[in-house]
Amino acid sequence: RPYCVVVALLLLAEVSRLGEGASNPGFVVRITRKGLEYARQYGMATLKKELSTINVPDLSGSFEVGWMGSVSYEFKSLRIRSFQIRNSDLSLLPGRGVRASLSNNYVSISGNWKVKKAFIGKKRGTFDLSVDGVSISIYLNLGEDGTGRPTASVAHCSNSVGHVSIHVSGNLSWILNLFHRRIENKLKDILKQEIWEIVRTSTSSHLEPYLRTLPVTLMIDQVAGIDYSLVGAPQVTSQGLDTPFKGEFFGRSQRSPVPFDAPPIRLPQQHDRMAYFAVSQYVFNTASRVYHQAGHMNFTIRNEDSPLDFPIHLHTKSLGAVIPQLARLYPNTELELEMSPESAPFLMFTPGNVTCMPVMNIQAFALLPNSSNRKPLFQLRARTDISATISVSSGRVHGSLTPGSKLKLELKHSNIGFFNVQLLESIFNYYASYIIYPSLNAKFEKGFPLPLPRDTYLNSLELQVHKPKVLVSALIGFLF
Ligand SMILES: *[C@@H]1O[C@H](CO)[C@@H](O)[C@H](O)[C@H]1NC(C)=O
Ligand SMILES: *[C@@H]1O[C@H](CO)[C@@H](O)[C@H](O)[C@H]1NC(C)=O
Ligand SMILES: *[C@@H]1O[C@H](CO)[C@@H](O)[C@H](O)[C@H]1NC(C)=O
Ligand SMILES: *[C@@H]1O[C@H](CO)[C@@H](O)[C@H](O)[C@H]1NC(C)=O
């Protein structure tokens, strides 16, 4: 049965620097009261199913009937005919945990009875039992197991059983009716014990395994993985349940400590969705660091990369028009460009926009016809504004880059003397638009997955932009 949950994706850049430093999460999932209400319905349906399977053990004993002496009895084949949950509630106990309570429930049980008495022999019949006012309170503790996985355990469970009434039919049923109080009390105790057992096993066999399907690390591609271990126990607040994930990209070949801290994440006071996924800049910046280190932001552009219809080629015949000394020094020579960012480019979340201002170094070489060596010609520094679009689909966060401003060039070093770099700007802009952006976007297109437990699928998306808080919020529905 598909369940639809509405969640939001928030991109947060918290400016406050007063954090706990390295232990701040890069990623927080908040399940709001609305989300918990949804979880309650799902949980109650599961619990109800489990409670209906309570295996009530056979019950036997004996009692003294004044003039008749001792009578032994047996109640067998006890079967829960129905377990009705009339009221259920899930409440948040800030700083402590979650309480689930089921009250005013009704159980009906049927079975067979048998009594044995020396001179009357064995008699048997059937009985129906109804139990009113069954109430169960379960206190759940949510934690983290030390390896970054979530845990759930029942801290305390109390239950009470209200009124039990038993109707026995058959010959000699009047004997049992004399003792119905004692039998009812015995059954009450058995039920309480069984309910507690079901609650405990449901938590350990349904809830905890489900939570443990949350991924701790996910591999993105050959280069990077993402660490989704919990950096702390899920926090219960009056708003909901906040689960802090590390949200850190790491290099698959070699993992080194990230030289910057995750900023503190403060979630906005929003509660109209069932869940909010808050992603801080940290996630994107650790990704940038890993791909930068792996050389995935270094580009070599050769003449064969420029389309035939492009009027200017990476050739001294072509560029000589812009840099006259080039044609003189290296007549009829192909050129090659190496582009690399000066440092890992970081994304910045500003109200309504995600931007990046990379500084690229561009080294130009002449490919000498008579040698395998390249002759370094000049080095440029290029600055630009890039605007990034973040989106979510199928449980993955995707990004795409679009040029925000034209490249601004500056001559850093030249082996061929001074020339006017402004004249090169349109050529380099062309290479950026037709070679670099498409290549980066092809990488970002795959995106990275959100930490979702088993059988959770995202199925719709809506983006909202919030101010003045730096926050992009996406509306997602998912099924589980
Ligand atoms: C009660 O006992 C009588 C005689 O032993 C028998 O005929 C009758 O069927 C019994 N009734 C039930 C409900 O067992
Ligand atoms: C990327 O290019 C820069 C500049 O040429 C170089 O220093 C760096 O080592 C390159 N990175 C990788 C991983 O190849
Ligand atoms: C977002 O960036 C674009 C391009 O730089 C700019 O035109 C726009 O005004 C920015 N929007 C906001 C809300 O700052
Ligand atoms: C290669 O050609 C360049 C320019 O044509 C010239 O200056 C250089 O001396 C040549 N080098 C060798 C090793 O022939």
From TrEMBL:
Pfam families noted in UniProt: LBP_BPI_CETP, LBP_BPI_CETP_C
Transmembrane segments: none
Gene3D superfamilies found in the cross-reference section: Bactericidal permeability-increasing protein, domain 1 (3.15.10.10), Bactericidal permeability-increasing protein, domain 2 (3.15.20.10)
Keywords on record: Antibiotic, Antimicrobial, Disulfide bond, Glycoprotein, Immunity, Innate immunity, Secreted, Signal
Keyword Signal among record annotations: yes
Signal peptide, first to last residue: 1-21
Gene Ontology cellular component terms for the protein in this record: extracellular space
InterPro entries: Bactericidal_perm-incr_a/b_dom, BPI/LBP, BPI/LBP/Plunc, Lipid-bd_serum_glycop_C, Lipid-bd_serum_glycop_N
Compartmental location: Secreted
Purpose: The cytotoxic action of BPI is limited to many species of Gram-negative bacteria; this specificity may be explained by a strong affinity of the very basic N-terminal half for the negatively charged lipopolysaccharides that are unique to the Gram-negative bacterial outer envelope.
Annotated family: Belongs to the BPI/LBP/Plunc superfamily. BPI/LBP family.
Subunit organization: Monomer. Homodimer; disulfide-linked.
Domain writeup: The N- and C-terminal barrels adopt an identical fold despite having only 13% of conserved residues. The N-terminal region may be exposed to the interior of the granule, whereas the C-terminal portion may be embedded in the membrane. During phagocytosis and degranulation, proteases may be released and activated and cleave BPI at the junction of the N- and C-terminal portions of the molecule, providing controlled release of the N-terminal antibacterial fragment when bacteria are ingested.
UniProt name for this protein: Bactericidal permeability-increasing protein
Source organism per UniProt: Myotis lucifugus
Gene: LOC102425384
